[in-house]
Amino acid sequence: MNERATLAGGKLSINTAPGKGTKISLEIPLLEEIKEFNNQANLA
After folding, report:
1. Number of structural domains found in the chain
2. Quick check: 44 pLDDT over 70?
3. Distance of alpha carbon 22 from alpha carbon 24, whole angstroms
4. I want to staple 10 with a disulfide (CB 3.0 to 4.6 A). Which of 1, 4, 20, 28 is the partner?
5. 3-class DSSP state for residue 28?
6. Which domain holds residue 37?
7. What is d(CA 3, CA 25) in angstroms, rounded to the nearest whole number?
8. With contact defined as beta carbons under 8 Å apart, do 12 and 24 qualify?
9. What does pTM read for this prediction?
């Protein structure tokens, strides 16, 4: 899951606590932000 999140330009976090369950968070940038990031990477 982490690899796929990274490929999409995002990040994944998994937090667990005994007796409290598991929280999974996935943050993926908006399409325009991805385009801007790719344009900047191509200029470097």
Report:
1. 1
2. no
3. 7
4. 28
5. coil
6. 2-43
7. 14
8. yes
9. 0.56
Structure tokens at 34: 């991805």
pLDDT at 20 over 70: yes
- Taking CA atoms, 21 is separated from 11, 16, 24, in Å, by 20, 6, 10
Distance CA 40, CA 44 (A): 7
Q: How far is CA 41 from CA 7, 8, 25, 34, 37, in A?
A: 14, 15, 26, 10, 6
Alpha-helix runs per DSSP H in the chain: 2-7, 31-43
Is the Cα torsion angle 29, 31, 37, 41 positive or negative in sign?
positive
